[in-house]
Design goal:
Number of helices: 3
Number of strands: 8
CATH architecture: 2-Layer Sandwich
CATH superfamily: Holliday junction resolvase RusA
Structural class: alpha+beta
Shape: globular
Largest sheet: 4 strands, mixed
Strand content: 25-35%
Distance between the termini: 8 Å
Radius of gyration: 17 Å
Strand order of the largest sheet: 1-8-4-7
Order of helices and strands: EEEHEHEEHEE
CATH class: Alpha Beta
């Protein structure tokens, strides 16, 4: 079965909620979301040469990796072990601020890899999802897309 694995460098970003323009009365997606979706797409293209767009059901595995704040010794100890990104007080922060909600990270990744010249034709093909948010030495998102049928 076909499997694509790639890494999106930089702090993981969650999908922002649509905004409403009161002047034009139109709903729009924030520019930061569009930029990150393109960043995801470019990471896929650069690391998965010779790909073809999958058309059947797929599984999506997402690992959001955050570098902990230097003043959080408990979190710093978790880096080498790849342990979950939270501490005993429930505080979830990284070296450059708040950790994105994992469900929104999944949404932006799935939107970034769909469409023409992408990993999947449509995000409705995703029928299995596994995800985690961990501390690690290099911020980013590890993505694995696996076709569940032969294509």
């Amino acid at each position: 079965m076909t499997r694509y694995e790639f890494y999106v460098d930089g702090k993981p970003h969650g999908k922002d909620r649509p905004r409403f323009n009161t002047k034009t009365k139109q709903v729009f997606t924030p520019i930061e979301t569009h930029r990150y979706e393109e960043h995801v797409w470019r990471a896929f293209l650069s690391q998965c040469s010779g790909y073809h767009t999958l058309r059947g059901p797929v599984s999506l595995d997402v690992t959001a990796v955050y570098t902990p704040a230097a003043d959080d010794p408990e979190a710093l100890a978790k880096v080498a072990e790849g342990r979950p990104a939270y501490n005993a007080t429930g505080r979830r922060t990284s070296k450059d601020g708040r950790i994105a909600d994992l469900d929104n990270v999944i949404k932006i990744i799935s939107d970034g890899v769909q469409g023409k010249a992408a990993a999947i034709a449509d995000d409705t093909q995703v029928v299995e999802i596994s995800s985690r948010s961990i501390y690690g030495p290099r911020q980013g998102v590890r993505v694995v897309i696996t076709a569940l049928t032969e294509e």
